[in-house]
# Entry
Amino acid sequence: MSMSQVKIFPSERMDPEYPWTIWAVGWLAIFKAFLWLAYEPVQEESILRLLGAKFLLNSIPLVILAIGVWNRKKWAVWGLIVLSVVNLIFFIVNPQTLNAVLVVSEVRIYSIILSFLTLLCNGPLGDIFILCAAASMLKHVKA
# Structure
């Protein structure tokens, strides 16, 4: 595959027929790759090291897979599916890490909104969303 075949932002994304699930999951993968850099939970050092290693190892693959998904590549969709399953297994094996994904604040609405965002981008909700969108994405891929 040459670099001319894969573009960071393919021009076809502006077409009205471009599948919204492809666009949304690509952005979700980008957010999953970088949002963890903006949030530092108050947790034990061992949990933070574990999550830091997980997020660091996921960052580059998530960016590559997001660009591949935007270019409607089948390998990228399957890569996101596999990575989502691995991340869900991580949270099942290490349930104490879910506390580090939740935002605790004195302002209740602030806690709810930010916890939802961190669960979506740093936690299992985003992985579940990707798995739910997998069938639709596979229907719209080119090769």
Q: What stands out?
A: The chain has a mean pLDDT of 87.
